[in-house]
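Notebook, student rotation project (T.W.).
Task set for the rotation: take a protein with a known small-molecule partner, predict the structure of the complex, and write up what can be learned from the model alone. Partner molecule chosen: flavin-adenine dinucleotide. Sequence and SMILES entered below by T.W., checked by me.
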Amino acid sequence: MATLERDVVIIGAGPTGLTAAHELRKAGKTVAVLEARDRVGGRTWTDVIGGATIEIGGQWISPDQTGLYSLLEEFGIETYPRHKEGTSVFVGPDGKRIEYTGEDFPIAPEKVAEMDKLIAVMDELAAQIDPDRPWEHARAEELDMISFHHWLRTLTDDEDAATNIGLFIAGGMLTKPAHTFSALQALLMAASAGSFSNLVNEDFILDRRIVGTMQGVSKTVAAHLGEDVVFLNNPVLKLDWSEEGVTAYGATVTVSAKKAIVAVPPNLYSRISYNPPLPRKKHITHQHQSMGLVIKVHAVYDTPFWRAKGLSGTGFAPTQIVSEVYDNTFYEDTRGTLVGFISDVHADAMFELSEEERKARILADLANFLGDEALTPEVFYLSDFGSEEWTRGAYATSYDLGGLFRFGPDQSVPTGAIHWASSDLAGEGYQHVDGAVRMGRRTAALIIAALDGTAHDPAYDGSVPVPDTAHA
Ligand SMILES: Cc1cc2nc3c(=O)[nH]c(=O)nc-3n(C[C@H](O)[C@H](O)[C@H](O)COP(=O)(O)OP(=O)(O)OC[C@H]3O[C@@H](n4cnc5c(N)ncnc54)[C@H](O)[C@@H]3O)c2cc1C
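Predicted structure of the complex:
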């Protein structure tokens, strides 16, 4: 067992923990990062499966994600655009398949108008909400009392419009049924991306990818940190703390430090035994943030066959098991890769099936979108973060009804020498790698100021405007 003394110990080598470590090192602080897994990157994870590079976790970056873009620029990491050319496919509740172009689903004009009305309401409210402090909005308490599902139905009598809009945030983002989280939580998700319109525009939110993969960003930062900084296979299960300092106990390394950053998703805070126990408010708060669940489906074919038919690979089917599909062909790969998503209760149902039944069921949905060629991929793989001990769900955590207003104001308040940071606690970039980078920088800046006795800007997250060339 190695015993180390450092200025700061960071628990978790995901994008948040590694960005914080990088900032602290730049300020001349000594750091140790203890990571439970045998790899860095957390919910960003890439592997070669059946000869294909698969982004098992986070992968896309959108134009507003200037926190992540500035980190990419710092390390000279390039991005590339997602393949978007061609027509999209919509499969309606009646199973009818329609090819279309443009942003609107090919549904009755009055339903499009009703959806546009709901989008306008969401945009207006999201513009009034500060993603760092959604609980301060004048209607925050009221909006946190009602489920997103029921709130939408107070705005429209059109069931299809309410279902479609609900799915953008429920299945598409928080990966929980719309009746399990509040309207305020949904509006935070929208505000964190600049607007609800941004979130529902797949060409915006799924704009580009990282040439060296998203996990590659964490690997690059970790390599830059150098020797004796990141310690893998070191789950921290015990943390002694006071106002003056901490001692973190990993499997092979114990670190005493002036400050700790717990950079793990909030649903895992209680894996750590705190000595003394955390204050009552933290104990309660930490029980109200839970992970969603989504299966990311990867299917690799010898060619991107859909492109030859004039299809982009993009498809939506609000009532199908696989409700969205996109062309996810990896950088300069001559083969074609599709990625699909199966969210919340649909994911539960899929895990009840045998492996063969599950595969057949999922491929049948892909074929509904893009044709029978989809039935025979060369590689078929499902991302299942729900079975990962050090994540336990996907993509991220959100509050139960009323939790955001009641507990949100306390979520990032340090406890003695312990700081809490992850993309789950971010305002801008909430639930995304961008939010992780922002939280890592913000928390490091707070600690540097405390250790050096200098002034501190609580809004600092190091983001810089993105050069136009990034979106060319
Ligand atoms: C399937 C999937 C798809 C996604 N798609 C996108 C996307 O396209 N774009 C995007 O921007 N974001 C996406 N995300 C979200 C993004 O990956 C996360 O927001 C981001 O990784 C969060 O970073 P983090 O460092 O806060 O937490 P994590 O990435 O979860 O890192 C936390 C780390 O802490 C470690 N840890 C946990 N407990 C302990 C302990 N007790 N001791 C030591 N270490 C511990 C974990 O092993 C992990 O490495 C996706 C996520 C998933 C799961």
